Amino acid sequence: MRCCLDERKDVIRRILVGTFKWSNKDKFMETIEQIQDEIIEDFSLFDDWMQKYEYIIELGKSLPLIEEEYKKDEFLIRGCQSRVWMRAERKGDRMFFKADSDAIITKGLIALLIKVLSGHTAQDIAQADLYFIDRIGLREHLSLTRSNGLASMVQQMKRSTTLVYSGKQEEN
Amino acid sequence: MRCCLDERKDVIRRILVGTFKWSNKDKFMETIEQIQDEIIEDFSLFDDWMQKYEYIIELGKSLPLIEEEYKKDEFLIRGCQSRVWMRAERKGDRMFFKADSDAIITKGLIALLIKVLSGHTAQDIAQADLYFIDRIGLREHLSLTRSNGLASMVQQMKRSTTLVYSGKQEEN
Amino acid sequence: MDAPIHNLKKRLVREARTDFPILHTTVNGRDLVFLDSAASSQKPRAVIDCINTYYREQNANVHRGVYSLSQTATQLFEDSREKVKDFISAKHSREVIFVRGATEGINLVAQSFGGKFFKPGGEIILSQLEHHSNIVPWQMIAEEKGMKIRVVPINSKGELMMDALEDMLSEKVQMIALNHISNALGTINPVKEISALARRYDIPVLIDGAQATSHGEVNVQELGVDFYVFSGHKMFGPTGIGVLWGKEKWLEAMPPWQGGGEMIETVSFEKTTFNELPFKFEAGTPNIAGSIALGAAIDYIGQFDMLEIVKYERELLKYATEKLKEIPGLRIYGEAAEKASVISFLIENTHPYDLGILLDKMGIAVRTGHHCTQPLMDFLGIPGTVRASMALYNDQNDIDRLVDGLVKARQMLT
Amino acid sequence: MDAPIHNLKKRLVREARTDFPILHTTVNGRDLVFLDSAASSQKPRAVIDCINTYYREQNANVHRGVYSLSQTATQLFEDSREKVKDFISAKHSREVIFVRGATEGINLVAQSFGGKFFKPGGEIILSQLEHHSNIVPWQMIAEEKGMKIRVVPINSKGELMMDALEDMLSEKVQMIALNHISNALGTINPVKEISALARRYDIPVLIDGAQATSHGEVNVQELGVDFYVFSGHKMFGPTGIGVLWGKEKWLEAMPPWQGGGEMIETVSFEKTTFNELPFKFEAGTPNIAGSIALGAAIDYIGQFDMLEIVKYERELLKYATEKLKEIPGLRIYGEAAEKASVISFLIENTHPYDLGILLDKMGIAVRTGHHCTQPLMDFLGIPGTVRASMALYNDQNDIDRLVDGLVKARQMLT
Ligand SMILES: Cc1ncc(COP(=O)(O)O)c(C=O)c1O
Ligand SMILES: Cc1ncc(COP(=O)(O)O)c(C=O)c1O
Fold it and tell me: Residue D103: CB within 6 Å of ligand 1?
């Protein structure tokens, strides 16, 4: 059991020391699938919900925050019990996301989504099948209830991408 | 079993030859309770629903009809699937009822009610507890459904009595 | 229910009877013969068990809870909406509004759509065949708005007179509301044809499908209608739940009807904004168990081949019609070429009520009276009929018992 | 349930827990602790079995069938109305209207009563404590009629400011609509006192009793109110059923709201006349099983001494309040002197949503969010709270589990 504990701590440490990759700016070769598979592997180290959520909470704490100017209603995602602001930016042919939330678990979940989707092309994002959510046992957050917004977030990220590409939102 | 059959036939015969007492004009001493008990005794002769209903149907056929002029909406009892017209008349200190219906079983049931209540004083009618309906196994017709109107009929007979006595309806 | 190797094959309709616990009870000492499905159908074990399981293991309020039970309940509830969508081949599940039943669905459209779009001097087309639930809501809004009700007449077989309907069409008409199947006569109306006619004048069409959904396929897109309503309790589902389906463009344009929890986006005393579809029209805690069990009823129907249901019921209708006609003095009302498994009839010199009472004594449940279609009865010049209506759980034995019962009752009454 | 010799004695409240099957299930591997009864209560076996039996043995449409099943169903349905009447000490059972829930009841009054009696320039008094269901329907009719909504403020303990309410009263006020118990803060409002004030100006009072009926005696005559609404699902009954009670004089004077079957006396295309109370307001096939099972829920409550329920829940509330206050950084919202078993709270530096998610992982179901009382949350300056609400089936162990869970969650989050 010792080994597992160590490995787990290592994951947490990676986050804390900032080596956790927030986007794929530097590493364009990694596909959405590959990132998802890495996350699934990370999560496979946890054998109970507490460890899993501690990890998500840590992720949430380290999420690069959105600038205050974007914490306005127009950047609010509908359908979440916690408030989520999200901002999509286009750089070249790739999309980058920033987000914030008043709830830390929500932030952690967004962090995972951003890690998976940010830095990819509009087409890849639009077509992405986000199987990792189910596989790491977070399917409950995907439900149709309007209080849990993971589904809304995914939808919003895909929608923003389309909007940005169709020129309806300013580019950076 | 022979005896029973004969007795039953006798009851039917009584109706057919007109000896069945339609009201207590002649026999004021009989109370509402006594008449009910007689009916209960009559019905105790029947050992299945068919005989009981044949009897009720015969009763219905021999019910003294209401005059055509009273077959108007104002004499119609609400709450019956079959139409029932009822007319209450006061003679001295006693009430007499006439009625008709387009359904024969309904007529038979009214015939029983009239037999029990007609010819009594307003007070007796108002206070009457019509236990015979339950005892002869016709409780189903007392239900609250708006299609079976025995309850409505009883109510209407009591109400008409009050009305006639308070002078709201003409006397005969 | 099927062995795995058969699971591509649909179950046989004639096996359905065993699924309904109430059909194996007795009434007045006789095995129950239930021939009043047009009023309300019986429920299969699968539906009853679904409700049972819901309350024993899954119950919680929907949509706002983050805890597991609430998530489960919400998922089941929304899954059911999805099933309804598929069942009637709607485009989107957000076009599926859960209501109490067909009646509430019609009232919602009359008051919300009518309230916004109906104009004084306009006309609403109904038919002589309609159930009160598809008459009174329109009368109420017509009176409020100063509109006229026009009535499509029927021919002697009980079919809509399509020529007359066509003649009524004009720019003035603001709604056509007709039933899919007449509950009193069984007539199946040519809905597709009617909506094609209506489209010429851009007239919205509402179809009251209360009698249709358990007796044949309903595809709202193919029918080309604008609104379609039906009730769960008439299609093997529970009481207190039904569906209003409407085209998204209309539902979006319509104002909310009831206000309250669930249907709002934000509330303040200064300004309230409404939620998106379908929630805009679902104020308050919905009939959660009912909605979920309606889904179970749809699954139940889905085990069978819809075409086989139609065929089975048509054969039963034919058998019943022939047998009943052998009874002296019996007259059938409603002989439409396209007819569902409903037979209304009268026997000379007997009153429907008397027949109903005596049949009940023999364990046979039929409906008697005006069937909430007084204008139709007035038109036919009768106060009511005896109506035997069949569903997939009825069989020839039920018909034989009915015929025997009628013969006996007739003897007693005449 | 009791041995015959005990049948004068009421059952002990602390025995109730065993009656609720769902309380003996597990969630996320832990025994369920259900603390969201204010959203929807769980159902005792007696209620679940009642529904089961209804569909297995008694199901039929009500009021128009002459056959035995329909008679039985009708009798059960109307018996239930009688039970409701006794339960709230109404004068007549015809004053009891079955609706989908509290929300529909309020909408019915707002649209039917308001539609007829409200006048432009008039005022409707609500309070800062109200549930959206007791705000939005009034906003809708107020907008239609050109009226003003006035809001009774609350003090720092979450109690209505009665002086302010009194000051608002005038001839202009056409309705006072308040809840009996606040679902968000637990405040029990002084309804009797309010209706005494209202009577001075002859202002009708509607009380939203959604939170009240399972937590204390409700006697509508003693309360002196004009309308009272509540939901079955919050008092151990099924979803999709609730009650609007109104004084006969008002219900008689009010026009029907929905049209359809059941609510008519006669229908023709020329003239339709409406049925008498209560049917005038019950268009379409009602939620028959739901109504009957609501009666079963009332019977269930009736096994206990209502005063004992009040006492039990008050003790539980006291225990929970004390225990929760020991958690560092925890702040309770709502500390009314008269308070029902509902506790809303926040923990410093944590979000309600995060707490809710983590508690759920420990098998504990609480509600988080605005509890459909956004104006109240705005007033308190918070986006929402965590709310633990208790019913007669909760016990100290549930509270202990909640407190442990919160301590753990707080550790993880801060
Ligand atoms: C105080 C209050 N009023 C009204 C309602 C609405 O009840 P329902 O959703 O059952 O119609 C609720 C419940 O959510 C409530 O707590
Ligand atoms: C043709 C038709 N329309 C409408 C209705 C009303 O349905 P519900 O009472 O379930 O609202 C019925 C059933 O009575 C019906 O047969």
Answer: yes
